Amino acid sequence: MKYSHFFKYSLAIFFGLLLYACKDSDSPTGSFDILITNGTIIDGTGSKEFSGDVLIRADTIAFIGDVDLKKVEVDHIINAKGKIITPGFIDAHAHGDPVANADFQNFRDMGVTTIALGQDGFSYASENLSPWMTQIDSTGLGVNVITFVGHSTLRELSGTNYSVQPTEEQLASMQEILRQSMKRGAFGLSTGLEYTPGYYAEAEEMEALAKVVGDNGGIIMSHMRNEDDDQIENSINELLLQGSYAPVHISHFKVVYGKGQERAKQLLSILDSARRAGLNVTADVYPYTASYTGIGIVFPDWAKAPNDFGKIKATRREELEDFLRKRIMKRNGPDATLFGDGAWRGMTLTQVSDSLKMPFEKVLIDVIGPEGGSGAYFVMNEELQTVLIQDSLVCVSSDGSPTMHHPRGYGSFAKIIRLYVNETKSLELTDAIRKMTSLPATIIGLKKRGEVKVGSKADLLVFDPLKIKDNATYEEPHQYADGFEYVIINGHITKSPDAIVTERYGLFIRKE
């Protein structure tokens, strides 16, 4: 036998023995970094839980099964007796600055190990994302981060801005920036058609961009054009047109003003029909009945950029006051708007109105303005949203950030377990874990994460589900969740009962 053949033969035997040693049925030998023992594993797929140990070597799950402690050397042992072992949660729709807020402790402390940024049509504004990604790599991250390319950002970079119809050159520029961004690691396109300048886009533009997303194996994450009850079918159908070219996903699925289980089922049936027709459509939901966005959401389009608000006040004031009165009352009244920043942070529109002794519509026009702040809006129905959360192809998101004045950025994933699993029994624990792990990973196209599986990256949690608690409230939204005892990211313990971990082990993950 020639030496080269012998070497190949020996190598094959070596890897064969290694794989055999790491079969679930046989305890391995050798050195490992972490052993999680005595726990109950919920693997993220929705399958029934099972007992087993987990061995981690470097950043990867190396073995799942029964470990013989006499055969292995381990640097750190976690006793998970009475607790569950799950994949780290994946937030399909999040916000934050990975430079200014790189620790992302709010996400980590509610069990999130990966977040998806660049949402609602707005992302880092550069035609070349690589230097930005490299900069973030050098400083580190508290959790893993992926990004999408924002449609409104593409309009700005291409010079399209507020034009209804881009020129051929501008559309080609948007397509090329999107194509190159995806080649550099972005996971697809995000849209925010309720916001300007994305609002001005028409079907031809969106379908041209959808083709680029589909050709490059990505997905479109869409903040749809209108989430109001009387417009949402139109918004879904507009998105489904893009679904002919690429997978499409409804961000923070909600029905403003809609009520009841039947309404939710009607909308879910539209998605089911689209899937039967061959489209790939999914959604995410956060577990709160108040949205959060800029106060411009209550103003008419004709009073917002690129229109001159000062001129609108002077020439169409009576019309604007009438619009705002009706709009706010339709949105459950001024008590249902809670400001989240600026001088009025933590106050409702009613409270601001009372303090200034001005009608709320005049407050909006003369004190706040369409660019004057953000707030939480209590416009959703708990019964309807619960049915959406229960759907098998709807995953969980937070739509939150480290700085947003809304509890969803600190509590969403903990609340799913505390409320929907433990209290109302709306979800089985295995299904809830699936909605926070393998389902978003599959939707986004995130490889080797979202499952407790040999060969997957070691993003893992150890916790007692009955001890999970979301502490964030609308009054005090920046309260960290309790109960996630151990958080492991890329094979490193980043949260434990024994020590405060300051190192950052998250990665900027590029799409393969």
Account of the 3D structure:
Helix 2 links the parallel strand 6 and strand 7 (112-117). The protein contains 16 helices and 20 strands. Helix 4 (151-158) crosses helix 5 (168-183) and helix 5 (168-183) runs parallel beside helix 6. By secondary structure, the protein is α/β, with parallel strands linked by helices. It is globular and about 85 Å long. The strands form four sheets. Strands 1, 2, 3, 4, 5, 18, 19 and 20 form an eight-stranded mixed sheet that branches. It has a six-stranded parallel sheet with strand order 9-10-11-12-13-17, sandwiched between helices. It has a three-stranded parallel sheet with strand order 6-7-8, with helices on one face. It folds into three domains: 3-85, Urease, subunit C, domain 1 (Roll); 89-284 and 411-447, TIM Barrel (Alpha-Beta Barrel); 292-378, no CATH class. The chain has helices spanning 3-21, 105-108, 130-139, 151-158, 168-183, 203-215, 232-242, 261-276, 309-315, 317-330, 349-356, 360-368, 382-390, 408-423, 429-436, 438-444, and strands at residues 30-41, 50-57, 60-65, 72-79, 84-87, 89-91, 112-117, 144-147, 149-150, 188-192, 219-223, 248-250, 281-285, 290-294, 337-339, 374-378, 394-396, 460-463, 484-489, 492-495.
